[in-house]
Amino acid sequence: MAYVAPRSYGGARDTVQARDLCVIREELAQFGALADVMFGVQALTTQPIILAGTEEQKAKYLPSLARAENIGAFALTEPDAGSDAGAISLRANKVRGGYRLTGTKKLISNAGVAQVYVVFASTDFSAKAKGISAFIVESDSAGFSVREKTRLLSPHPIGVLQFEDCFVSQDGLLGAEGNGLKIALQTLDILRCTVGASAVGFARRALAEAIAYSRNRQQFGRAIAEFQGIQFKLAEMTTDLEASRLLVYEATAAHDRNGPDSGLKSSIAKLFATEAAQRIVDQALQIHGGNGVVAGHVMERLYRDVRALRIYEGTSEIQKLLIARELLK
User: Is residue 157 situated within a structural domain?
Assistant: First the structure.
């Protein structure tokens, strides 16, 4: 967790590096989806504070997040605001000394686990996307509750947050009023390539399992790895995996040198790596045959774990729109 914050606030390096985040997520994803997502969401929480927080906010929250003494959450999605983040309807009404938040957030990772929530709400509903602001909300705030723990295809701490006249002091405003969506998009831009790295990790594990199984599984008097059909699958899976890894680390290099095309490269890496990981895991399960769909088998777990990557932090369809937008500027 030390890699999600700068050294001056208890982190591992002078600045948070996209490459570090990707290396860690790739390694974690090979062995545990929950470990990977906990790390990823911690980075999602610290980035808005790093980008827009005051010195007081950074000093208050980043060290405990970097030491994992506190767990974070990034609360953007709502029942009617998914890919269209500008449609946020959670209200933040200005009152004496701060704001009162009223509304609902849905599909929020670490709901009920986190102590620190970065929450996006509308301070000016008439301004639509330009009226969205960011807030830091602590889990013990009056009027804040976790309304539901949501069960997903793959086990994951996620749920629905309820804000009922929840008071947030002026010190909880992150950045300026109206800059919330900009902060959210900048954060997602940084973290998007790390989702690709997570996909690489899942794909690496699936390929390794497929190779090992095909060497040991005997059919028709020989190992199935000796059949050309299996060999072609392994070759295609490896090609997809290597292309994914190269795209992911090209994107991290662009981010870490502040390249003007870093956003484009992140979208390309996220799109290709997550779609490729789905193909790789599917083919690895196919090589395992019936054993691969037995509940509790590593391939059954990977098949469930990999699916969400094509949805969160920007669906594959949204990545295509972002890529096309960059090309047509």
Answer: yes
pLDDT mean over 98-126: 97
Question: 3-state secondary structure string, the chain?
Answer: CHHHCEHHHCCCECCCCHHHHHHHHHHHHHHCHHHHHHHHHHHHHHHHHHHHCCHHHHHHHHHHHHCCCCCEEEECCECCECCCHHHCCCEEEEECCEEEEEEEEEEEECCCCCCEEEEEEECCHHHHHHHEEEEEEECCCCCEEEEEECCCCCCCCEEEEEEEEEEEEHHHEECCCCCHHHHHHHHHHHHHHHHHHHHHHHHHHHHHHHHHHHHHCEECCEEHHHCHHHHHHHHHHHHHHHHHHHHHHHHHHHHHCCCCCHHHHHHHHHHHHHHHHHHHHHHHHHHHHHHHHCCCCHHHHHHHHHHHHHCCCCCHHHHHHHHHHHHCC
CATH code at 172? Answer: 2.40.110.10
Residue 155 has pLDDT above 90, yes or no: no
Give the model's confidence band at 85: pLDDT under 50 very low, under 70 low, under 90 confident, else very high.
confident
Q: In which domain, by residue range, is 113 found?
A: 72-178
pTM for this entry? 0.95
Catalytic residues: 313
Q: Read off the pLDDT band of 111 (50, 70, 90).
A: very high
Please give the tally of structural domains in the chain.
2
